[in-house]
Amino acid sequence: MRFNIYVKNRVAVVGAGLTLFRRRLLETPQEMVWIASKKALEQANMDFRDIDCVISGSAPDTFDGVHMKGEYYSEGAGSYGKLHFRVFVGGGTGVFVPVAGWWMVASGLCKKALIVAEEKMSSAADPHPQAVFRHIWDPLIEKPLNPNLIWIFALEMHRYMHKCGVSKEDIALVAVKNKANALDNPIAQAAAKITVEDVLKSEPLVYPVNRLDISPVSDGAGALVMVSEDVARRYTDTPIWVEGVGFALDTTSWTNRELAFPVYVKTAAEMAYRMAGIENPMKQIDVAEPYDPFDYKELHHMEGLGLAPRCKAAELTKGGVTQRDGDLPINPSGGLLGVGNPIAAAGLMKVAEIFWQLRGEAGKRQVRKPVYTGLAQAWGDLMQIGTVIILRR
Amino acid sequence: MGRSDANRYSNHFKEVIKLSSYLFGGTPLKEEDFKKLVREIMKPKARYSVSAGQAYSRFFEGLKQGKIYGTYCEECGMVYVPPKIYCPFCFKQLDKWIDVKDEGKVISAVVSYYSATLEKLEKPEIIGVIKLDVPGKHFTSYRFPGILHRLCNVSPEEVINQSIFDARVKARWKPPEERIGDINDIECFEVLRG
For chain B, which end, N or C, has fewer CB atoms within 10 Å of the first or last residue's CB respectively? Predict the structure, then answer.
């Protein structure tokens, strides 16, 4: 086994759990966190009493309508008498929570950590939860123009289409694939058998973005159990190792840069690859869950992660390479487009999916080829952060 | 949820909650059921008064006079519009100001059919990112002074067929007496034709 110079203790994922992802759930944030945590602990053959620290993540407080919601929901994750903190990097949070869990265990500060992510977007009722995003813009330069969140994605998507010669049809294939993959996911909210035609004919919101190019608004929670190598085999015969983590930030001045390629995602991926000893990600990553809140984002992120040559991700998609039975299965879970997008929980869902894929526990979603190394990535803040985690069995 | 609490709900909700169980990991609600279960509606009232800061204050003063000011970094050559008092890439303090032209070219453009609060717009809006000209300075395609603004005298078709990309545009200013030192002192960027 390769010796990793970055790590005092190797870190294993030994359990994962998710709630249903739905537009509206009855459960409160605390109850959702409780349900996801119980499921993850069940898989790890552990109890809340076995855990010594709780690391959580959630998107803006404004969705739940509770300030300091980390403190509010944390008791549902059994945080009483333990260390608990919440990390937040916008949409990148879901993958950053396990990264934060990793550093707590890798450094030796904790031996057994519970990692939770939660989002209750349905509480933001009037107007649409989307309106919460009005307050992420620069208050002086951008907000007076009355932007809606889709502008920024549409501008990036159109720039990518123009620069790379990619059509809306090519991009729609991602939504078709992910929503179909989600048909096999028992927690999925937006699973569907649709065609490229359906995507193109769905309501135009901000050209080039149509309704079916976007993931839905959701409630949901997810949890992982991460433990130190010396205790991992007490809980499972097939620990999944965290081999690399990466993160990188750009500035919020998103109008000042080339939108067609996410350099910050590349930087984050390079950090994780260096740690995991990966030199050729296209060959060495067997399955990946890049962040797909919009369909073009999957392509954009595959290129940022080096899983496709620049401007070529659409071609790979068209050729079936990214299907579950393809050479490089991408978003076998169904992604945010198919499973739903409870922001932080959605990113964590991706890490859980890679965990199950590597253990061969993904059931009907299991990819056809044997998989040893997988990657999950999330993206967020104001078009500026990439967060990456690499798992290996 | 304790049994006695559950009994307080009507039969209808007993059904809903029965479905819940931890096995399913959450209880999906239809919109009408959700409305009946809502127990608290809050509408926080908040007002923010945002001061413009060192760099933006001068930028807004410039807009009032029909000028676009930026700052530039002597180390990397980057020009910032809107201006910054530091270079986020070289970590240097910036105090050199530069006149940026109110002209540039379109980097990306979109057609918005919805408002900020997702209400349908009667007339779609065209929005773009504009790379501004700075006399005597050149920029890579990765970093440049760029600004978000409305585009006018552009049809949705020109956006959809991508002919708007790289088009030359120029700011259409409000009349001087109507300018208040705000990004909306520029009404929009107009395409220069012919």
Answer: C
Distance (Å, whole) CA A370 – CA A358: 8
pLDDT digits (tens, 9 = 90+) for A252-308: 999 999 999 999 999 999 999 999 999 999 999 999 999 999 999 999 999 999 999
Beta-bridge partners for A16: A224
Count, residues in chain A? 393
Q: Are B33 and A22 in contact (CB under 8 A)?
A: no
Of A4, A35, A9, A42, nearest to A236 by C-alpha is: A42
Residues 6+ apart with CB under 8 A from B177: none
Per this entry, what is the length of chain B? 194
Asked if A138 and A78 touch (Cβ cutoff 8 Å), the reply is no
Compute the C-alpha angle B31/A91/A249, nearest 5°. 165
B contact test, residue of A20, A22, A26 with most B CBs within 10 A: A26
CATH pick for A11-125+216-392 out of 1.10.3720.10, 3.40.47.10, 3.30.1510.10, 3.55.40.10: 3.40.47.10
ipTM, two decimals: 0.89
Estimate the crossing angle of helix A29-43 against helix B11-24, to 10 degrees: 30
CA-CA distance, B65 to A355, in Å (whole number)? 59
Chain A touched by B46 (CB under 8 Å) = no
List pLDDT tens digits, range B41-85. Answer: 888 788 888 899 999 999 999 999 999 999 999 999 999 999 999
**B11: closest CA of chain A, how far (Å):** 16
Kindly report the pTM of this predicted structure: 0.93
Query: Which residue is listed with tokens 């690859």?
Result: A273
